[in-house]
UniProtKB/TrEMBL annotation:
<feature type="transmembrane region" description="Helical">
    <location>
        <begin position="440"/>
        <end position="461"/>
    </location>
</feature>
<dbReference type="Pfam" id="PF00873">
    <property type="entry name" value="ACR_tran"/>
</dbReference>
<feature type="transmembrane region" description="Helical">
    <location>
        <begin position="364"/>
        <end position="383"/>
    </location>
</feature>
<dbReference type="InterPro" id="IPR001036">
    <property type="entry name" value="Acrflvin-R"/>
</dbReference>
<keyword id="KW-0812">Transmembrane</keyword>
<keyword id="KW-0472">Membrane</keyword>
<dbReference type="GO" id="GO:0042910">
    <property type="term" value="F:xenobiotic transmembrane transporter activity"/>
</dbReference>
<keyword id="KW-1133">Transmembrane helix</keyword>
<feature type="transmembrane region" description="Helical">
    <location>
        <begin position="338"/>
        <end position="357"/>
    </location>
</feature>
<protein>
    <submittedName>
        <fullName>Protein HelA</fullName>
    </submittedName>
</protein>
<dbReference type="GO" id="GO:0005886">
    <property type="term" value="C:plasma membrane"/>
</dbReference>
<dbReference type="InterPro" id="IPR027463">
    <property type="entry name" value="AcrB_DN_DC_subdom"/>
</dbReference>
Amino acid sequence: MLNKIIKYSLNNRLFVLLGALLLIVGGLYTAGEMDVDVFPDLTAPTVAVMTDAHGMSAEEVERLVTFHIETSVNGATDVRRVRSASMQGYSFVWVEFDWGTDIFRARQVVSEKMVTLGGVLPEGIVPVLAPQSSIMGEILFIGLKADTTTLMELRTLAEWVVKPAILATGGVSQVTIIGGDQKQYQILADPQRMDRFGVTMAELAETGRGFSANSSGGVVRDFGNEYMIRGIARTNDLEELGETLVKTVNNRPVVVSDVADLVIGSAVKYGFASENGEPAVIMAISKQPNVNTLKVTEKIEKNLAEIEKSLPTDVVLNTRIFRQADFIEASVNNVRSALLEGALFVVLILFLFLASFRTTVISVLAIPLSLLGTVIVLHLLGLNINTMTLGGMTIAIGSLVDDAIIDVENVYKRLKQNHRKPREEREPVLDVVLNASIEIRASILNATLIIMVAFVPLFFLTGMEGQGQRI
């Protein structure tokens, strides 16, 4: 088979050169279009279930919430492991599925299991599925700080201006806001005034739950027209909110402002964020699996540049706190540099030992042709360029050049021997090249097979290590 390929190549040299040229052009174009990352995305099919349980201790969360969620998903189709974390006010459960499981099917399985918990969990506790994110973690941290704008206003800008714009960027999974003061409309009850009007805390709390809400009054039909009746009560004005009815006492309406004070305040803090030692609002951005980090980061920064124009003049938006794209570019560039330096040293050593510019060029041509062919194969398999694939290519250079040297050196030796013969005894050049290549073909093939066999056991590793070898 190989002999026929070599003979065909020798008889159709122009066709082979054209194919090599197309391979170079196609490989260069593909390399420019491929995704680049530090490591391959080893995100296992995992569904995260988050539950907000404010007011509960870690022990209560574990016993009343986490335990029931774990029990419901254990034994579900294709589930291989369930992990959880319970802390004060929060429960996190990670459901890991077998490799190869469709993530949308996995989320559907978990969603169906959550429906069965309606009558088991404490009242008001509703587990939700977290957005699907990459195992690579946060790709970008954004900081907002200002001189005169308050932390409450910064937090409001982050939640209602910056965050929606980031989530609208393709490839973004979720945005987590840390720090600042979360704005609240607070009802500060006055026990003495409540006692004077006979208002209980339960009545005031019930009124607060229905605060600032519109209501529907059905429709009115008149002369063939239909008019919708709506009660417009939604407002953010403290005086208007204070006029909300609590109850009627002795035919006199008692409103919220009669028994309590309404103020705008900040929610209880569960964390703190700072930038260079100064209070700030930090936004952590996570990407979706199998998404190009560099392209997503570029899109986010482009959107943020437009948003920054509409922010108050004293607000500083910093995207350089943590930027995973910088590490990716640095890591890949380091490996690329090592690859180029290694290729350069190979060229120099070949020239010194072979003492022939022509044979050196022929041997070295195996490097770009093989690497660009590898890039095309990676693209067809849906993989990306990362430090692992580049490292593998760097290691493969040794084997590539070794095979090329053996073949070219033997052909070169046989051609010289043929040239020393009398003219009438000389064989055709193409026959010499074919016979010289066939002569050492078995040795090259066996050496390459030995190297391949040495790496075969790696493909039988299990877990994340094995998955990393297979992709």
